[in-house]
Amino acid sequence: MSAVAAPPSTLPLRNSARQFVAEYGRKILAVSGYVMLGFVLLHLAGNLLAFSGSATFNAYARSIRELGAPLVGQGTLLLVGRVVLAAALTFHLLAHLLIQWQPSSVSATDDPLPPWFASLPVSVLQASGGVIALFVGFHILQLTIGATHPAFVRDDPYHNLVVALRFWPMAMAYIAAAAAVGVHLLPGFWTGMASLGVIRPRTERLVGRISPVIALVVAVGLAVVPAAVLLGVVA
Fold this sequence. Notes:
Layout: H1 11-47, H2 54-65, H3 76-101, H4 122-145, H5 157-166, H6 168-195, H7 204-231
């Protein structure tokens, strides 16, 4: 028997969806990914202040909550930042699902040939992304809300950080999550640049060198604080 053809009325809708994914899918994936990368870098810089002691770390955390005051209410800009981050995560997931739904629509014969680290299977990105998403949810519950923290003190984030990471399975979970971020960035940074048309003959080598460096720096930077707490360097 021959396959049943799609109703004519649905064909324009399907063609529009394919055209949208082909034109914007990878760009949305890239832009939303870089928004989240920007947050990760800021978060990383703040985390490293733990090496300066509780006073500096707690002052940094307080300054984030007070950012924009008194022009706007305390915590307003922090809330805006969280909304933007949540939107970026949502668009990132939706773009990925769209690309998986129409994989042939996003291939382009003139794309630059990716290096080995940007040619990892999609399953690697999916697995690392899943680990990151689960960890972010737990991290918010533990160190932002305090729901899963054994001795949460709302106005003492340094205490909360140290107490949580003294438990070695928790510290290892944070280190594993840092590794997942690095694995996700390894192909993701390069492919994002390719999707935005940044990689040209003059920039291909530079981006190829920068991509693994960024992935390594972010992974090590995120892992160093839990490792330091576990080893007693930060206490």
